[in-house]
Amino acid sequence: MLYFAFGSNLDPVQMTHRCPSATFYCRATLPGRRLAFTLYSVGRGCGVADIVRSPPPPAGAGTAAAAATTTVAVEVDEVEPGEPQNVAHTAALATTAAPDPAAATTSTSSGLDDDCVWGVVYDIPSEADIANLDRCEGFGPERRENRNMYERRPVTVHRDGNAADPVAAQAYFAIVTTPGVFLPNDAYMGHITRGARHWQLPAHYLQALENHPLQQTQ
Questions:
Q1: Cα(first)–Cα(last) distance of the chain, in Å?
Q2: Residues 73, 33: contact at Cβ < 8 Å?
Q3: Beta-ladder partners of 52
Q4: CA atoms within 13 A on the CB side of 27
């Protein structure tokens, strides 16, 4: 399975804990979405990453988008106690040569307000690893839809932000959610920024992540 990660699973160490068979496939963007922190994770003790529809363009700026109810794609990102660690594979994934940063589409936009979300596509060949990722993301394919908080759906992402190079992948979408506005804490945001830095996501996007407000420690 090709899986598009945009939150804490960008961190190659965490991703290896959850899916030891995962390997890097490519950097990618999901167009028409933006990164936000609209859910609270009890396990993390902070707001966690999701992706929400980008607002429609202003009137007169091209074809107006049809009004629609916001759909939220959510990465649960709960800490799973006792997650196994394959040290050798962790080292291999964490030291995978990052792609050439020049290959990414250049941008002068502000980062998290982009009309796309940057992330990484992993190739996960192991069915057991896919099942564990489903569990971490709150999805049980054998359960009735109303018993799931999230479901895995196909998405089309753009390799290195290039619309001419689409990649079919999977992402996790909320079935029913009432978004709020929460802040990530330093530990959680550290997973995202370490992953973004490791995979050499565009500099403007990394800077926006690093400048994002954090939850204040009590």
A1: 40
A2: yes
A3: 34, 72
A4: 25
Which residues, in sequence order, are CB contacts of 147 under 8 Å at separation 6+? 140
Coil vs helix vs strand at 8: helix
pLDDT in tens, 123-142: 999 999 999 999 988 888 77
For 102-124, b where at least 16 C-beta lie within 10 A, e where not — what string? eebeebeeebbebebbbbbbbeb
Beta-strand ranges (E) seen in 71-200 are: 72-74, 116-123, 150-159, 166-174
- pTM reported for the whole predicted model: 0.77
Tens digits of per-residue pLDDT, 63-90? 333 333 333 444 444 444 344 344 344 4
Question: 164-167: which pairs have CB atoms within 8 A and are 24 or more residues apart?
Answer: 167/2, 167/25, 167/26, 167/28, 167/121
For residues 36 and 7, the answer to whether their CB atoms sit within 8 Å is: no
Question: For residue 67, what are its two tokens?
Answer: 């009004």
Q: How far apart are CA 24 and CA 120, in angstroms?
A: 8
